[in-house]
Write a structure and sequence with these properties.
Two copies of one chain form a homodimer. By secondary structure, chain A is of the alpha/beta class. Chain A folds into two domains: 9-212 and 330-410, Zn peptidases (Aminopeptidase); 214-327, 2-Layer Sandwich (Alpha-Beta Plaits), CATH 3.30.70.360. Chain A is 35% helix and 20% strand. In chain A, strands 1-2-4-3-5-12-6-11 form an eight-stranded mixed sheet. In chain A, helix 1 runs antiparallel to helix 3 (97-112), helix 3 (97-112) packs across helix 12 and helix 10 crosses helix 12. The longest helix of chain A has 22 residues, at 294-315. The first copy, chain A, is globular, with a radius of gyration of 23 Å. Chains A and B meet through helix 8, strand 8 and strand 9 of A and helix 8, strand 8 and strand 9 of B.
């Protein structure tokens, strides 16, 4: 059965436009941070779509939303398709959104065709994927996959001091379903690439074979307050200058490895007290480095650590790595990757293998279930920017691949 | 009359200790930001001292407090001695405080000696000198000297969005006296040097001949948001990196001129949105440069402006000077400087001429009255730091100079 199904592209696009009208950003994108009123409104919309389609909605205690289209053998572990509906502070209309709504379109297409799969298919909207409000990103798939406790998630604090649990309760999306603890047959996530490769090559589908080895660090720079006016240069210990030197060094490392598709980022800098008239006594800088292979990443990390003493000496500050972490060193499920490749070949869809450079909920799901990802093109690779854009026709091959592969898996 | 008067050093020290107990910082200094509860408590204390001494207290509509010891000819313009009792976020116990309390000690010494001066002597505590809460610093002497309107001052907003007028009303120090508009015979301000010269040379008094030519700029860096992970280096326009490059360039300029006693500072950096996961699209950096002479300052400013295009190109951001200002190019009153020199010679107090590198209320008062400043030593030049320290014995020569010169002027 189910040899060459196709989704309804215009219906998919309409759902995307509905989403794009909820929590509009000032420049045509979205600012729909997790657990805000805008997020609630989008969740209400998804709930409404679930009711319309007759999909059973279950919401767990962290607000993760599951829309279930029942299979002929309800006791079998379901196939899960998901992503997230929250966005960045200056987010686009497709990052995350496309993955959830493509899942919804899969369910609707099966309704159109009156096809029942053997296993149920569920579409999931994960809470707080972006990490733009509560840290870390991919927070609730982390817990769902058994890698963090609910208590720990509930105690996460946003920058205004609001607890995750309180924000979730406020918007009325603290459900009753347990968080995780059930078997999933397979997890599929479709996402815009967030890089320029598919757009440049005009290949419509990226089969994501795994993560991009990544290294993160929180650098602490300790200086000393002093008057910003008379204090002689030789007596200064300005944390801002120490942090600026580290940021420039990190950027230089990124450029030194750019030809090999590596990146190094200083994305966030906090200063204390950050006032005119007084030199800052403390700074923390968040550093992120990504490389296509672990050896290059190890070299970049070495160069980064080697740069710190020089920055400290030149700025007369104390600089240390206060915290560090790594991620992205893993491969997605070989069987699912083979299924995607075979299905694409059968459908005549050109694909290329890619590694995901951004984190995704699929990273965490890969720890508790066979997981895979499909990338679709995004214009110029622009993302986390309101100008983020896609072309429907270039996106549909990926969505059709998702449909056919998920159905094949659900009928297994 | 009044040929060689001396203050009561231990009484002065006691008042300083009382002040040091109000709004204590976590590390032994003061955190007594203007118009906070701590500031109110210190103002209440000053009011109490005024009542004890029988000095007429008048508070103007911006909260500036004047303690008047009447002269034998009350209709003559008074001699004013003043500074400020507010401090930085990480402030010391002496910056500003010493000047007000030295003035109080002058009044008390005249009481001890039962001396009435011809002109009244008034001690003033200026509101919001530091600029740590409301911008700009020296806010209320600016208005008092006729260089800003009360309305403009009242509408200043702190970083929490609180209006100056509301903060002032809240602590109950919105008085009824008009702001300025009366003639002052002379303005004296005693202040710790906030630099290391007196401490290094062990000369107890600096006669401040004028300001240190200073240039300030608010630099705007326009970037573009993008995903902090996958975005290729060549497609990034990270405002944080642009700002870091400017900060490093400014610091380098400071060092290039450090041997000539010049400084260049990047003290405050604001980033938008400053989140992990997304490159910042906007930054503003506050730059401050000070030099002993206008020619050197002009060179430094040229070097600064010349550095910006390179920073913009290397960071792929747009960098511009959004606002710039200058100050410090003026001399204090020649007659008062001569009075200070003559008086010090008569008292056998060694002095050196200095230019003030920090801004002071005396800068503004110099626009509406003959004004002068006396510097006293501070340990290692450390200031705007809780470790700020002085030695009473090294401070008393300056306070005695203030006493004798102010009395001489008041008897003129």
């Amino acid at each position: 059965m189910a040899s060459n199904l196709t989704v309804n592209g215009s219906r998919l696009w309409e759902t995307i436009l509905v989403s794009a009208s909820i929590g509009k950003g000032p420049r045509g994108g979205l600012r729909r941070l997790t657990l805000t009123d805008e997020d609630r409104q989008m969740r209400d919309q998804l709930k409404h779509w679930a009711q319309d389609g007759g999909y059973r909605l279950s919401i767990d205690r962290l607000g993760n939303m599951f829309l279930r289209r029942e299979g002929s053998e309800p006791s079998l572990p379901p196939v899960l398709i998901g992503s997230h509906l929250d966005t960045q502070w200056a987010g686009g209309r497709f990052d995350g959104v496309l993955g959830v709504l493509a899942g919804l379109e899969v369910l609707r297409t099966l309704d159109d065709l009156n096809l029942q799969t053997r296993r149920a298919i569920e579409v999931v909207n994960w809470t707080n994927e972006e990490g733009a409000r509560f840290s870390p990103p991919m927070l609730c798939s982390l817990a769902w996959s058994g890698q963090a406790s609910e208590e720990w998630v509930n105690d996460r604090i946003d920058k205004d001091g609001v607890r995750f649990a309180d924000a979730l309760a406020r918007i009325g999306y603290r459900g009753e379903a347990p968080v995780g603890g059930r078997t999933v047959d397979a997890y599929f996530e479709l996402h815009i690439e967030q890089g320029p490769k598919l757009d440049e090559t005009k290949i419509p589908v990226g089969i994501v074979i795994g993560g991009f080895p990544s290294y993160g660090a929180r650098v602490a720079i300790q200086g000393e307050t002093a008057h910003a006016g008379p204090t002689p240069m030789a007596k200064r210990s300005n944390a801002l200058i120490g942090a600026a030197m580290v940021a420039v060094a990190v950027n230089d490392i990124g450029w030194a490895h750019a030809a090999d598709d590596a990146k190094a980022t200083a994305a966030r800098l906090d200063l204390v007290p950050n006032l005119p008239g007084i030199l800052s006594e403390y700074a923390q800088l968040f550093v992120d480095m990504r490389a296509p292979d672990v050896n290059r990443l190890a070299r970049m990390k070495e160069e980064f650590l080697a740069a710190l003493p020089g920055c400290a000496e030149r700025s007369r500050t104390q600089i240390s790595v206060a915290e560090e972490w790594g991620f992205g060193v893993f491969d997605f499920d070989a069987e699912l990757i083979a299924l995607l490749r075979d299905t694409a070949r059968r459908l005549g869809i050109p694909t290329m293998d890619l590694r995901s450079q951004a984190g995704h909920d699929a990273y965490h799901m890969a720890k508790c279930a066979p997981a895979c990802m499909i990338f679709t093109p995004c214009k110029d690779g622009i993302t986390h920017n309101e100008a983020e854009d896609i072309v429907l026709e270039e996106t549909l091959p990926g969505v059709n691949l998702l449909l056919n592969a998920a159905v094949a898996r659900a009928n297994r």
